[in-house]
Design a protein that fits this description.
Bound molecules: adenosine-5'-diphosphate, magnesium ion
CATH class of the largest domain: Alpha Beta
Number of domains: 3
CATH topology of the largest domain: Creatine Kinase, Chain A, domain 2
Structural class: alpha+beta
CATH superfamily of the largest domain: Glutamine synthetase/guanido kinase, catalytic domain
Number of strands: 20
Number of helices: 22
Shape: globular
Largest sheet: 9 strands, mixed
Strand content: 5-15%
């Protein structure tokens, strides 16, 4: 018999996937379920009992004792409440039970999750509902084996309290609108479309022992203090560098855990910054990709601990060193397997592709601020708009080939040619000569066309990708719907499509930019073009409740006004709470660690000055005295900044919750934090390392 590879042996062993269902479910039940999954049709509750039974038997065979409805509240991380399978029997024993009702519906207390005012705390009821489109899986940890059932989470009154529900709604929306367009092109065979998403996940790995010595990493996920080490990332020797043994062994373990969960972990490499790495899975349907990405983040953290390491998912763990993002690769695919964003070899004569391309360009231009918001969290503010990759201004990179087609269309109303890549020749005869891509890459673009998909690069590394994809699906649905309205009425379809493409590209060419997105010239140019530049999350939050956006989300049943308003509140709350925790952590570290350490050091300096003076009155004391003076002066600055930070943090608590408080945290508290950081970081460069109370950037970044 053929021997199976290691990966084949472990792949998806912990997943109740299609193969398992086909094998274990009665045929009619399997057929019905599959039909629901593939065609977005109503779930027949009659089959739930049979599915629950098969799931339970399968899970028990694999050692499970508990099951949980696994969901994604607005905290951005996943939540679970475990129930064991036991039910008492008459004779004092137990049997293992799991009913269809338990599979379909759960009832966690909703009051402890962010609801943004949808629920008062006394109204505690919330429901989780089985999402049969994402397969159940087993989680193994110290608690044993648990059957996890992906679910949506909503309130007693039916509002979404999670990230999954609106994502699923947006997937239905885009499917409906894209199918309308495809019908016009004669594709009656297409019943639905879905979005494919491949998220590339960046992360940092540091030593666990060192991590434990830094309250800032523990409480906030990022360093709030820290001077730059003599070596940063300037040598560019880390990117794609050989992977260190300790990291390699971590990655190996991580891959196995992910494969067991049916996650197609594919690519891994070192990233730009020291101690930074990336993992990319093979893309999947948006919903499953989102669930998988949550599992990837969770597993990264769990496996790191096993290796005496700590995984940092924060967008900016270290100031002055590249931060982490998540490139969200997105495309639209029909149920017949055709990628609607695939241009083919000659995009200029692929009218259907050009129409979908125009739709995405228009959607992104019309909704740049909303997209910016979808990639916002407090951590990502340190990247977007802070002179780092990518910029906060949304623009689209199309590449030479498509940009040329677009210019032809705008200028002459007709595109006649598509530039081709030609051959790549290295000048060495023994190296293979191969055909180049028609287009080079651009690393600085926040929204880049990369061959047959768009890559949305603004998303933060710690974020759920549900939000960004939900927004993308909705804004593109909105344009497709308008396009369909217009084209369905057209007398001459060919002419109408042609005109629509030309008009759309002409109106939205301002959002296309192939140059360097990091440059200052671009910021000025973008302003001239009228593109929004929102530097912070707090600036972007009002987008959620803008009248035209409410209308759009309601039109496609993705989010209601109440849900949008609550999400805006939650965003403000998350921002304020995050900065508040950071400020309090700084206060604690400065008061209990840095200031006492500097006092000890200056005392030892003073002692040594006195000792040297009495031993040798004529000795030159200028070095010690100078150092003592410099440290004391910075110490006084740090103390004053600390007192100010304490004062403004207290003041913040008195502000009205919501926008007012968040703005105060951003403008006043955040500024005060930086004012405290500056003298402390300067002191780190002066004070004897023996006295310094926490591991330095150098220790964290280079000693893994
Ligand atoms: P790069 O670093 O060059 O951007 P990677 O290989 O690291 O490329 O990641 C590309 C990601 O895009 C992978 O997750 C891949 O599966 C995904 N991807 C590839 N094709 C598509 C597609 N048609 N739709 C969505 N995602 C895709
Ligand atoms: Mg990429």
């Amino acid at each position: 018999m053929e021997k199976k590879s290691v990966i084949e042996q472990v792949f998806a062993v912990d997943v109740f996937n299609d193969a398992v269902m086909r094998e274990r479910l009665p045929k009619p039940v399997y057929k019905k379920l599959k039909h629901t999954i593939e065609n977005d049709e109503d779930l027949d509750l009659e089959i739930a009992g049979a599915v629950a039974h098969a799931m339970k038997e399968w899970a028990l065979e694999k050692g499970a004792t508990h099951y949980t409805h696994w969901f994604q509240p607005m905290t951005g991380v996943t939540a679970e409440k475990h129930d064991s399978f036991i039910a008492p029997t008459d004779n004092g024993g137990v049997i293992m039970e799991f009913s269809g009702k338990e599979l379909v519906k759960g009832e966690p207390d909703a009051s402890s999750f962010p609801s943004g005012g949808i629920r008062a705390t006394f109204e505690a009821r919330g429901y989780t509902a089985w999402d049969c489109t994402s397969p159940a899986f087993l989680k193994e940890d110290a608690a044993g084996v648990t059957l996890c059932i992906p679910t949506a989470f909503c309130s007693y009154t039916g509002e979404a309290l999670d990230k999954k529900t609106p994502l699923l709604r947006s997937m239905e929306a885009i499917s409906k609108q894209a199918v309308r367009i495809l019908k016009l092109f004669g594709h009656d065979e297409v019943a639905s479309v879905s979005c494919s998403v491949g998220p590339e996940q960046e992360y940092f790995i540091v030593d666990h022992e060192k991590y434990l010595k830094r309250e800032d990493l523990i409480f906030t996920g990022r360093t709030l203090f820290g001077a730059m080490p003599p070596k940063g990332q300037e040598m560019e020797d880390h990117y794609f560098g050989a992977i260190k043994e300790r990291i390699a062994s971590y990655m190996k373990d991580l891959n196995i855990e992910l494969w067991k969960l049916g996650i197609l972990a594919k690519t891994q490499h070192n990233e730009v910054a020291p101690a930074q790495h990336e993992l990319a899975p093979i893309y999947a349907t948006a919903n499953i990709a989102t669930d998988h990405n949550q599992l990837v983040m969770e597993t990264m953290k769990k496996v790191a601990k096993r290796h005496g390491l700590e995984c940092l998912l924060h967008e900016k763990p270290f100031a002055g060193v590249n931060g982490s993002g998540k490139h969200d690769n997105w495309s639209i695919v029909t149920n017949t397997g055709k990628n609607l964003l695939d241009p083919g070899v000659t995009p200029h004569d692929n009218i259907q592709f050009l129409l979908f391309l125009s739709a995405v360009i228009k959607a992104v231009d019309d909704n740049a601020a909303l997209l910016r918001l979808s990639a916002s969290n407090p951590g990502n503010d340190h990247r977007l708009g802070a002179n780092e990759a990518p910029p906060a201004i949304i623009s689209i990179f199309l590449g030479d080939q498509l940009e040329d087609v677009v210019s032809q269309l705008i200028e002459t109303g007709e595109a006649k040619t598509s530039k081709q890549g030609g051959n790549l020749s290295t000048g060495v005869h023994t190296l293979p000569e191969f055909k180049k891509d028609a287009t080079d890459r651009n690393r600085t673009s926040p929204f880049a066309f990369t061959g047959n998909k768009f890559e949305f690069r603004m998303v933060g590394s710690s974020m759920s990708i549900a939000g960004p994809n939900m927004v993308l699906n909705t804004i593109v649905s909105n344009v497709l719907s308008d396009f369909a309205d217009e084209l369905e009425k057209a007398e001459d379809f060919d002419l109408a499509v042609h005109d629509l493409i030309k008009k759309t590209l002409t109106e939205h060419q301002r959002v296309i930019f192939n140059g360097n997105g990091y440059s200052d010239e671009w910021v000025a140019e973008a302003e001239r073009r009228g593109l929004p530049n929102m530097r912070t999350m707090v600036d972007a939050i009002p987008e959620l409740t803008k009248e035209e956006n409410v209308k759009m989300f309601e039109k496609f049943n993705v989010l209601s006004r109440v849900e949008l308003e609550s999400r805006a509140e939650i965003n403000y709350e998350i921002y304020s709470k995050t900065i508040n925790i950071e400020a309090k952590t700084m206060i604690e570290m400065a008061s209990k660690k840095y200031i006492p350490a500097v006092i000890k050091y200056t005392t030892s300096l003073a002692d040594s000055i006195n000792a040297v003076k009495s031993a040798c009155p004529e000795a030159d004391m200028s070095v010690q005295a100078g150092l003592l003076k410099e440290c004391s002066s910075l110490l006084a600055q740090a103390k004053a900044a600390l007192e100010n930070l304490k004062k403004v943090t207290k003041e913040a608590a008195g502000k009205a919750e919501g926008q007012e408080m968040a703005v105060f945290f951003k403008d006043v508290v955040f500024t005060a934090m930086n004012e405290l950081r500056t003298p402390v970081d300067q002191l780190e460069m002066l004070v004897d390392k023996e006295f310094w109370p926490v591991p330095s950037y150098g220790d964290l970044l280079f000693e893994v």
